[in-house]
Amino acid sequence: MTGLPWDASYHEGPAPWDFGGPQPAVVRAAGRFTGTVLDAGCGSGENALHLASRGLSVLGVDVAETALETAREKNRERGLDAEFVTADALHLDRLRRRFDTVLDCGLFHAFDADERLAYVRSLEAVTKGTLYILCFSDGENAGPHPVEREALTKPFGAGWRVKTIEEERVRTRFHDENGAPAWFATIEREPPDE
């Protein structure tokens, strides 16, 4: 939405959302993650690596190659077995894989309304279980591109069930340690009618 390629966010040090660890909300929810995991928009990999350290099979995807190189290096240094590949979140079908759990941490709020519809269609191709979304909310002192609760649920129609939306916080390098107001949504993929 800034007009710059995502990779540019990583060229002069950490990106604004890269504070040096996994998001606390993801750490708290990690016990709910099962099976194979896709981290869509994984950035430099902290959330994916945290989940991999818990024994989960994790694929992190991003369009920012600089971030992915950082994630791969951390993966090697920590002796983990996560996988990181370049992929466009609007074309996840190109992965030709399906995942039990999908994480979107800080990606949903970067899309406009039309892109969110395309993104949900993309998620349909890869999600066979539960999708977790952590995004900026429209609360006080919100981060950039805040999302109203209705805007979070609206793109998820037939084939999805919004199970819960909880108030949370997103850590960034520009907020204090409490982070910015956020939503943490649990959205389930419904099996097709037989």
TrEMBL record:
Record has Flavoprotein as a keyword: no
Superkingdom in the source lineage: Bacteria
Keywords associated with the record: Methyltransferase, S-adenosyl-L-methionine, Transferase
Family annotation (InterPro entries): Methyltransf_25 (IPR041698), SAM-dependent_MTases_sf (IPR029063), TPMT (IPR008854)
GO molecular function, one term: methyltransferase activity
PROSITE patterns assigned to the protein according to its UniProt record, in alphabetical order: SAM_MT_TPMT
UniProt GO BP: methylation
Pfam annotation, one family: Methyltransf_25
Ranges of residues in domain Methyltransferase: 37-128
Protein's name in the database: SAM-dependent methyltransferase
Organism: Amycolatopsis azurea DSM 43854
